[in-house]
């Protein structure tokens, strides 16, 4: 007879996500996971697989909870540029926030730590990045069609520039305690939309 799990796998996955997000992949040992999740090593392996598989599942969870809100923000009816500006400013505020900045973004952290040598992590990073860049591009195309963005602007190139800025805000915000650095960069980028 199979034993019943004595823990909630969803809560354990959320806890693993939080630990990986705080420490990164390499700095989180299996012993750390056992301690933080409060479940045995064998249960972790039986439920999630290896540490690497658990990390990838944590990335998937992160994407499920983070990415859809951006699409919702950028696809509201009406003028599109105010929504784009609000997203960029929100990213800047999060990057400058004392409570949020030190964790950064799990995807950005993974891009720097694992993506160069881990194809599975790199695929997840690319998918997440597409879920940021594509809605930005769609909003800028809409803005141009509605006369908010000059005709001589390239919405795809602007979306890519803003996407790279958003990722940079997260990296710089995590490492710098000068909030003006990320806020000024965001405002200068937004000036390009005028």
Automatic annotation (TrEMBL):
<feature type="DNA-binding region" description="H-T-H motif">
    <location>
        <begin position="29"/>
        <end position="48"/>
    </location>
</feature>
<dbReference type="InterPro" id="IPR011075">
    <property type="entry name" value="TetR_C"/>
</dbReference>
<protein>
    <submittedName>
        <fullName>TetR/AcrR family transcriptional regulator</fullName>
    </submittedName>
</protein>
<dbReference type="InterPro" id="IPR036271">
    <property type="entry name" value="Tet_transcr_reg_TetR-rel_C_sf"/>
</dbReference>
<keyword id="KW-0804">Transcription</keyword>
<dbReference type="Pfam" id="PF00440">
    <property type="entry name" value="TetR_N"/>
</dbReference>
<dbReference type="InterPro" id="IPR009057">
    <property type="entry name" value="Homeodomain-like_sf"/>
</dbReference>
<dbReference type="Pfam" id="PF16925">
    <property type="entry name" value="TetR_C_13"/>
</dbReference>
<keyword id="KW-0805">Transcription regulation</keyword>
<keyword id="KW-0238">DNA-binding</keyword>
<feature type="domain" description="HTH tetR-type">
    <location>
        <begin position="6"/>
        <end position="66"/>
    </location>
</feature>
<dbReference type="InterPro" id="IPR001647">
    <property type="entry name" value="HTH_TetR"/>
</dbReference>
């Amino acid at each position: 007879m199979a034993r019943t799990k004595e823990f909630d796998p969803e809560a354990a996955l959320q806890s693993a996500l939080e630990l990986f997000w705080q420490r990164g992949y390499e700095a989180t040992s299996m012993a750390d996971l056992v301690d933080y999740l409060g479940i045995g090593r064998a249960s972790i392996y039986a439920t999630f697989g290896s540490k690497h598989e658990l990390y990838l599942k944590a990335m998937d969870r992160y994407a499920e909870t983070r990415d859809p809100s951006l699409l919702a923000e950028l696809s509201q009816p009406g003028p599109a540029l105010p929504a784009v500006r609000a997203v960029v400013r929100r990213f800047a505020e999060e990057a400058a926030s004392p409570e949020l900045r030190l964790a950064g973004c799990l995807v950005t952290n993974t891009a720097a730590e694992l993506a160069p040598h881990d194809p599975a992590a790199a695929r997840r990073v690319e998918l997440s990045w597409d879920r940021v860049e594509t809605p930005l591009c769609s909003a800028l195309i809409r803005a141009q069609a509605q006369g908010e963005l000059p005709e001589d602007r390239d919405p795809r190139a602007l979306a890519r520039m803003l996407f790279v800025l958003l990722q940079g805000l997260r990296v710089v915000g995590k490492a710098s305690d000068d909030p003006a650095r990320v806020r000024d960069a965001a405002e200068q980028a937004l000036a390009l939309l005028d």
